[in-house]
Write a structure and sequence with these properties.
Layout: E1 11-12, E2 18-19, H1 25-28, E3 40-42, H2 47-55, E4 62-65, E5 71-72, E6 80-85, H3 93-107, E7 112-115, E8 132-133, H4 136-139, H5 159-168, E9 173-178, H6 180-195, E10 201-206, H7 222-242, E11 246-252, H8 259-267, E12 273-275, H9 289-300, E13 302-308, E14 322-323, E15 329-330, H10 334-348, E16 354-358, H11 361-366, H12 371-389, E17 392-393, E18 395-400, E19 403-408, H13 409-412, H14 424-433
Parallel strand pairs: 6-7, 6-9, 9-10, 10-18, 11-13, 11-16, 12-13
Antiparallel strand pairs: 1-17, 2-5, 3-4, 4-19, 7-8, 14-15, 18-19
Bound molecules: adenosine-5'-diphosphate, 1,6-di-O-phosphono-beta-D-fructofuranose and magnesium ion.
C-alpha cells in the first residue's frame, strides 16, 4: 500500500510555552526523555517504495513521534481533563484509563480528572449519568478487571450538547477511547470546539477488538483477544479429535476485517479452515467449503473451522438490513448458518458427524488484558497524555513501524484496515491450514 496521499500534519491549540514539569530534577531522576516535533517516523519502510517516491518528487510521508515535549500548553494546576470510553468493550480499557490518570496526576501534577460514564451518553444531561472523579486511588487496582470502569454505550448524541457539557465542566483535554465510530465523533467534537474558539484538546486512543482502525498497525486488546481465542480453538480441537468425524466450529469477532480469525489460526495451528470477510467463499459446489470439509473428514477424521462474524454475509442477501444504535450494520449470524449447513450436508450424505459450536465473542472482548497488552496500554495512555499536555489536538496515538506516533484523527477514519487477500498474513494462513480456494469457477458464458 502507498501512503503518499496521507496528510500527517498535527493541529495545535497554540504555542506551547510552559516548561514541562517533567524537566524538574525530581521528575527527571528516573530518566525523563523528550521528543521534538521534528522527530518523525516514515510511513513506508520499503526501500523501493521510498526510492520511487523520491524519483516522483514526492516527499516520503512521516508521522510525528509520540512522547513528552519540553514545553507544554496547559498549566497543570488549572487543567481539568475528561476521559470517556465508547462502543464495544475491549481488553485493556481499564489499563488505558489507569495510565492516563497516573501520568496526569503523578508526572504532570493534574488534580482534576473526570470520568464520563457510559460513553457519549455521559455528556448529555437527560441520561442522568453522574461523572466519576478519577485519581490514583480510584484507578490503581483496576488492571485485573475486564470491561471499563467508566462503562460504555452506543448511539448518536448531539455533538453541540457534548461541547456544551465540556464547556460547563471547564475541560481542557478530552481523551476519547474508542473505535472508528468514536473517532468520527471525536473529529466532529474537535471541529465544534474549534468553531466556538475554545481551547480544548481532543485526543483519541484507538480501541478495536477487530484491529481494523486504519493507520494503526496494532490496537490494544488485540494480543489478548488472540490469546483467548486460541483457548477456544484448543477446546474445539480437543472436542473434534475426541469423536468420530468430530468438527469444531468457532466464531470470532471481526465485523469487516478478519485479523482476529486469521491471527488466532496462526497462533494455534489446529485450524483447517478460516473464513473471513475479505475472502469470498462458496458453501456448495465442488470447490465449496462443505465438499472440502467432507474431504478433510475422510482423510483425517476431524476438522477445526474458524469463522469471522463478518464472513459470508452475502449468504443473507435479500434479508432486511438492520443497524445498531450507532449505525453499524447488524450482522446475521454466519456461525449458526454454517452450523446448520454442515448438519444438513452430512445428513444428506448419510455421514454421521459430531459438531461442536463455540462462540467466545463476548468472553474475549470483556476480559482483562494480558501482560503484553498491559505494557502496550501503558505506553499508549502515557503518550496520549504527553500529546494533550503539549496542546496538540484532533489526533490519535497510534503504533506504526514499531514506534508510537501521532496520526491526524481525520486520516484514520477515512477507511478500515483489512486483511490483504494477497498479503503475507493470509498467505501464511493458507500455508498453515492447507486451505485451498473455496470458490467454484465462474460458470462459462454461453
Ligand atoms: N459518524 C459519526 N458521527 C458522530 N458520532 C458517531 C459516528 N459514528 C459513531 N458515532 C458515535 O460514537 C460512539 C461509538 O461508536 P460505535 O460505532 O458504537 O463504536 P466504536 O467507536 O467502537 O466504533 C457512539 O455513541 C456513536 O453514536
Ligand atoms: O454486541 P455489540 O456490542 O453490538 O458488539 C458487536 C460488535 O462489537 C465489536 O466487537 C467491535 O465493534 P466496535 O468497534 O464498533 O466497538 C465487533 O466485532 C462486533 O461486531
Ligand atoms: Mg466500530
Amino acid at each position: 500500500m502507498r501512503f503518499e496521499h496521507i496528510d500527517t500534519t498535527i493541529q495545535t491549540l497554540g504555542e506551547a510555552k510552559i516548561p514541562s514539569p517533567l524537566l524538574q530534577p525530581a521528575n527527571g531522576e528516573c530518566g525523563a526523555y523528550f521528543v521534538d516535533d521534528d522527530e518523525r517516523i516514515l510511513l513506508h519502510v520499503n526501500e523501493k517504495q521510498v526510492a520511487q517516491l523520491k524519483a516522483d518528487g514526492i516527499p516520503a510521508p512521516a508521522f510525528e513521534s509520540a512522547g513528552p515535549r519540553r514545553k507544554i500548553y496547559f498549566d497543570p494546576s488549572k487543567l481539568r481533563c475528561a476521559l470517556v470510553t465508547c462502543g464495544g468493550l475491549c481488553p485493556g480499557l481499564n489499563d488505558i484509563i489507569r495510565s492516563v490518570v497516573l501520568e496526569l496526576h503523578h508526572r504532570y501534577g493534574v488534580r482534576h480528572i473526570c470520568g464520563i460514564r457510559h460513553g457519549l451518553q455521559g455528556f448529555i444531561p437527560k441520561y442522568g449519568h453522574s461523572t466519576m472523579d478519577l485519581s490514583p486511588e480510584t484507578v490503581t487496582n483496576i488492571l485485573d478487571s475486564g470491561g471499563s470502569i467508566l462503562g460504555s454505550s452506543r448511539g448518536d448524541q448531539d455533538i453541540e450538547e457534548v461541547v456544551d457539557s465540556l464547556e460547563r465542566m471547564h475541560i481542557g483535554i478530552l481523551f476519547m477511547i474508542g473505535g472508528d465510530g468514536t473517532l468520527a465523533a471525536a473529529s466532529k467534537i474537535a471541529d465544534a470546539i474549534h468553531s466556538r474558539g475554545l481551547k480544548i484538546s481532543v485526543i483519541g486512543i484507538p480501541k478495536t477488538i477487530d484491529n481494523d482502525v486504519f493507520l494503526v498497525a496494532r490496537s490494544f486488546g488485540f494480543d489478548t483477544a488472540v490469546d483467548i481465542a486460541t483457548q477456544a480453538i484448543s477446546g474445539a480441537h480437543n472436542e473434534a479429535e475426541a469423536y468420530p468425524n468430530g468438527i469444531g466450529l468457532i466464531k470470532l469477532m471481526g465485523r469487516e476485517s478478519g485479523f482476529l480469525a486469521a491471527t488466532a489460526a496462526l497462533a494455534r495451528q489446529d485450524v483447517n479452515f478460516v473464513l473471513i470477510p475479505e475472502v469470498p467463499f462458496d458453501l456448495d459446489g465442488p470447490n465449496g467449503f462443505l465438499e472440502n470439509l467432507e474431504k478433510r473428514l475422510t482423510h483425517r477424521g476431524h476438522a477445526v473451522v474458524v469463522v469471522a462474524e463478518g464472513a459470508g454475509q452475502e449468504f443473507f442477501e435479500g434479508r432486511k438490513k438492520m443497524h445498531d444504535a450507532s449505525g453499524n450494520v447488524k450482522l446475521y449470524d454466519i456461525g449458526l448458518l454454517i452450523k446448520s449447513k454442515i448438519v444438513a450436508h452430512f445428513k444428506e450424505r448419510g455421514i454421521s458427524v459430531s459438531l461442536k459450536y463455540i462462540d467466545p465473542s463476548y468472553i474475549i472482548r470483556s476480559l482483562p488484558a494480558n501482560s503484553n497488552d498491559h505494557v502496550f496500554c501503558s505506553f499508549l495512555g502515557r503518550d496520549a497524555v504527553h500529546a494533550g499536555m503539549s496542546g496538540k489536538t484532533k489526533l490519535v496515538v497510534s503504533h506504526w513501524n514499531n514506534h508510537f506516533v501521532h496520526v491526524p484523527m481525520d486520516q484514520v477514519i477515512t477507511q478500515r484496515k483489512k486483511v490483504d487477500p494477497d498479503g503475507k498474513l493470509w498467505a501464511t494462513v493458507l500455508e498453515a491450514t492447507g486451505q485451498s480456494s473455496l470458490k467454484n469457477p465462474a460458470p462459462k458464458k454461453a
